[in-house]
Write a structure and sequence with these properties.
heterodimer, A: two-stranded antiparallel sheet, B: alpha/beta, 5-stranded parallel β-sheet
């Protein structure tokens, strides 16, 4: 039955490539094909697939590229398939040979001529007759294969959402919100209501200091570091401050990522009393050396700031497996803080720790 | 019911490129919301009005989003404060019930009404980060439940307001939802997946621009002759070309229309326009901030070493 589903190979390929598509997206594509969209030329079909399935420039580019090597169904095929499809109103998920529907890498480099039916053009199993690719469109551009997937460890949006979990709200400021319960009580006590009872609005009191390591071993995550700083602004914190350091936080922290505008640690502590602390550093795991002096320095630093800043989490962008046999291993064993791997789950856990929930 | 397709050319105030019109038709076919992105001033909002006009769907239900907008308010509202007030009077029996204080929000109304309409959710990126996701369910199947309405009051509610607990629309009356975004915030992935994405680009063709200006300024060729219009568009295109990439807000169709109105009002001649195409008369009005104006003046003077002032 798998030949009854045009574009199925492409769809499966996209799902495997990380496009977040559901079966409904596929059904919509069939519906659109049946209604006459994307029929006729390769460009029209590409337009349909991009409109329905691609949601970022990156995905648009990927589809652009795929369409150089993908076969596409002819009008007759679609018609037949549509008729077939009507009979089985719900397309069942066919489980046959998806491999034959993947783009053949070989085809990519050589233009396919119309008179060469031998090249994999069919949508279903090899027995099904397919149609030829138009040769003019099949020529790859010299630069098109160099697509780098630039995906941050945690997306900006996710970061903001995670920050917003960090809430310790207190009522503060002018009384502007209606206290419904008190108002109703007042009403029932007096039998009338002279005026509604107001209370101050809740405000987030969560305070966070983030210390960011900007040494060379952290260079691979330079982009993410910017993203993190950017996300703080939208995180609705009571107060969030960022300082930078090199290798190990010591006597002096810096206000700028270029390690300029130094501030002595005592001042930072004073300005951010009662805050929580997040340290963002690979703790030597990126280079993979064990340096006792670094561990010692970290112990000293943690011991010093913990009177003012509690709890403390240490986010490490290196995978936990790579901490072993490096300073990170030693540092993660130090008391007064929790070291976590920087992933979405790790950050969620970190927020729990910062809110005082010890589950680690 | 055979529906006519949207062409993007059927109205006298707007014209949509072919692929945009095609996207709109696809979205209508698949009952998906249309997400429109593009430079400010290139007609995102007008697209919704042109769909409504061309498909004769009456007035556009416009929902302007603010940073405090909540998805719930689009659907229905429960006026608790009013109820509290009413409860103070012993004669008022309404306050014993919930239904008298219910009313449908703009999207709720559009879903409930037995005719199809165009719903424009303008600048969704202004809303809080959770807003699009809250709306997702409703836009998915074009129905929602009024949870605040107790079951035993449903009949009374139908009698008074005409709607019950469940608000839904049939396939024929499903609103066409147009959502515009300026990309101030990134929209959530599931939401993007749900929408048909339409990107409005700035029309580069002189023909298209001339058409847009004529349609929007209602200046006939007697009032503003083609020669002036073409020259003005040429000057505008030069200014825009220099500004794109460097200016914070490069001039777009909206600015072009205003500028040409100014030229017409001031009675500019072709000769005056020709003098310096990069710095045409009143060019400052094409920009929206001081830095852009200064930057453009500097660039234009540099590229044109002997400007005849």
């Amino acid at each position: 039955m798998s030949q009854d589903f045009p574009l199925e190979g492409l769809f499966r390929y996209l799902v495997r490539a990380g496009f977040k598509l559901s079966i409904r997206d596929y059904q919509d594509a069939l519906k659109a094909l049946r209604a006459g969209y994307g029929i006729g030329t390769r460009d029209k079909l590409k337009w349909l697939c991009q409109t329905l399935w691609a949601r970022s420039n990156e995905e648009l580019r990927q589809l652009d590229q795929l369409f150089l090597s993908f076969p596409f169904p002819s009008a007759e095929q679609v018609e037949k398939l549509a008729a077939e499809n009507d009979k089985t109103s719900e397309p069942e998920r066919p489980g046959s040979s998806p491999a034959s529907m993947l783009p053949r890498k070989k085809d990519r480099t050589e233009p396919v001529a119309d008179d060469k039916p031998a090249i994999a053009l069919e949508f279903g199993p090899p027995s099904q007759q397919g149609i030829a690719l138009t040769s003019a469109n099949a020529k790859p551009q010299p630069d098109e294969l160099f697509i780098l997937n630039e995906r941050p460890m945690v997306s900006l949006r996710t970061l903001i959402i995670i920050w917003r979990r960090f809430r310790t709200a207190k009522r503060e400021g002018p009384a502007v919100e209606l206290d419904l319960e008190a108002t109703i009580q007042e009403q029932s006590r007096h039998g009338r209501l002279p005026q509604p009872i107001l209370v101050p609005a809740r405000r987030n009191q969560a305070r966070l200091v983030i210390l960011i390591d900007v040494s060379n071993s952290m260079l691979p995550w330079a982009g993410f570091q910017k993203l993190m700083v950017q996300s703080l602004r939208k995180g609705h914190f009571g107060r969030a401050a960022v300082y930078y350091f090199h290798n190990t936080p010591l006597e002096v922290l810096y206000k700028k990522e270029t390690l300029t505008k130094p501030v002595p640690i005592e001042r930072v502590l004073q300005e951010n009393q009662g805050s929580t602390l997040m340290i963002y550093s690979d703790a030597g795991a990126a280079r993979g050396f064990m340096r006792r002096d670094r561990i010692e320095e970290s112990r000293e630093f943690l011991g010093r700031v913990r009177r003012e800043w509690q709890p403390i989490v240490w986010m490490n962008p290196m995978p936990r497996l790579r901490w072993r046999h490096s300073s990170a291993d030693g540092i993660s064993r130090l008391s007064h803080h929790t070291m976590l791997q920087l992933t979405e789950e790790g950050l969620i856990r970190a927020i729990d720790v910062l809110r005082g929930k010890q589950g680690y | 019911m055979e529906e006519t397709l949207y062409t993007g050319r059927g109205t006298d105030f707007y014209r949509a490129p072919v692929n945009v019109a095609e996207g709109v038709n696809l979205a209508i076919e698949l009952n998906r919301p249309i997400l429109v992105e593009g430079e400010a001033g290139c007609g995102k909002t007008m697209l919704a009005y042109s769909i409504a006009a061309e498909k004769r769907l009456g007035k556009v239900v416009k929902i302007s989003i603010r940073s405090t907008s909540r998805a719930q308010d689009m659907l229905y509202r429960l006026n608790s404060l009013r109820r509290l007030q009413d409860a103070q009077s012993t004669e008022n029996t309404d306050a014993r019930f919930t239904f008298p204080y219910l009313s449908l929000g703009p999207l709720g109304k559009a879903l409930h009404e037995p005719v199809r309409s165009v719903v424009l959710i303008d600048e969704i990126d202004k809303a809080d980060i959770d807003f699009p996701n809250d709306l997702l369910d409703v836009l998915d199947d074009f129905s929602f439940d009024i949870y605040d309405l107790p079951d035993n009051e449903e009949q009374d509610c139908i009698a008074r307001h005409g709607f019950g607990k469940r608000i839904e629309s049939t396939k024929e009356t499903q609103p066409i939802v147009v959502i515009t975004s300026n990309r101030e915030k990134r929209l959530p992935e599931p939401f993007l997946r749900r929408c048909i994405y339409v990107r409005l680009r700035f029309p580069e063709e002189v023909e298209d621009l001339r058409d847009i200006v004529r349609k929007n300024t209602k200046l006939t060729s007697e009032k503003l002759n083609d020669e002036i219009l073409t020259k003005a568009i040429e000057a505008f295109s030069r200014v825009r070309k220099l500004a794109v990439g460097s200016a914070q807000k490069p001039p777009s169709t909206g600015e072009l229309i205003d500028w040409i109105k100014i030229l017409h009002w001031k009675g500019q001649t072709v000769e005056e326009l020709k003098e310096n195409l990069e710095l045409p008369p009143y060019w400052e009005f094409l920009f929206k901030n001081m830095n852009d104006i200064d930057a453009h003046e500097a660039v234009a003077t540099k590229s044109n070493p002997t400007p005849s002032k």
